[in-house]
Write a structure and sequence with these properties.
There is one protein chain. About 90% of the residues lie in helices and about 0% in strands. The protein is built from three helices and no strands. It has helices spanning about 5-40, 45-80, 85-89.
Length: about 90
């Protein structure tokens, strides 16, 4: 196994991780921004007001984007397993 192959596998894994986590991070970011604006406008400083909507938004996003995420992961794993003979020798 060459160092180039190792770097290519690691790069693919990092790209996959970023693509899978991006929808969840964006949902939490947008929800947090909306809640922050609401808290600033109403001067309500309650910790659960920020936590619970983010949790719900991430859960809904996971339900909606879950099949896409699983497809990406299984495609990557399939490509990785299929490339084992070429990587070994």
């Amino acid at each position: 196994m060459t160092p180039t192959a190792v770097i290519e596998i690691a790069r693919g894994a990092v790209e996959l991780t970023l693509m899978i986590s991006a929808p969840l991070f964006l949902a939490a970011l947008v929800t947090g921004l909306v809640i922050s604006i609401f808290q600033a406008a109403t001067q309500i400083n309650e910790a659960t007001l920020s936590f619970v909507p983010k949790l719900i938004a991430i859960f809904v996003t996971l339900i909606l984007a879950g099949p896409w995420m699983v497809t990406l992961m299984t495609d990557y794993m399939r490509r990785l397993y299929e490339s084992i003979p070429g990587i070994i020798g």
